Amino acid sequence: xxxxxxxxxxLVQPGGSLRLSCVGAGFSVSDYDMSWHRQIAGKDFExxxxxxxxxGVTNVADSVKARFTISRDDRKNTLYLQMNKLRPExxxxxxxxxxxxETIWGRGAQVTVPS
Length: 115
Known about the structure:
With 115 residues, the chain is mainly beta. It has no helices and eleven strands. It is globular.
């Protein structure tokens, strides 16, 4: 069964850093378009960024550019989201998604940045 599992969330003070991990099981993350999304309480899902399976190119949303970085470790079959200079408005549940012929979502990881 193909699945992705996020980890690394938690409580961090403003200006701090966290790294989220997304481990793939039952498939190779390098074969899928991998992305991070977040849902802020009471708001719609927001695309945070992703990495193309074909090119390996990463992109992040303007709202997190220069603060968040996406990377992938193919040996560990893991996608990462490095989050720096965190702000209270980054508080959300962060989800990992793998997409190819099917879409695989993780269960999410809570990130809380108190104001």
